[in-house]
Amino acid sequence: MTHILAIDQGTTSSRAIVFDAKLNPVASAQKEFPQHFPASGWVEHDALDLWVSVAGVARAAVEKAGLHAADIAAIGITNQRETTLLWERKTGQPLHRAIVWQDRRTAALCDRLKAEGHEPMISARTGLLLDPYFSGTKLKWLLDNVDGARARAQAGELAFGTVDSWLIWNLTGGKRHVTEATNAARTLLYNIAENRWDDEICALLGIPMALLPEVRDCAGDFGMTRADLFGREIPILGVAGDQQAATVGQACFAPGMMKSTYGTGCFALLNTGADMVPSSNRLLTTIAYRLDGRTTYALEGSIFIAGAVVQWLRDGLKIIRDAAETQPLAEAADPSQDLLLVPAFTGLGAPYWRPECRGAIFGLTRNSGPAEFARAALESVGFQTRDLLEAMRADWPAAAEGVLRVDGGMVASDWTMQFLADILGAPVDRPRVTETTALGAGYLAGLAAGLCPDPDSFAQDWALERRFLPEMAQERRQDRYARWQKAVQATIAVAAP
Question: Are strands 214-216 and 266-273 parallel, antiparallel or unpaired?
Answer without folding.
Answer: unpaired
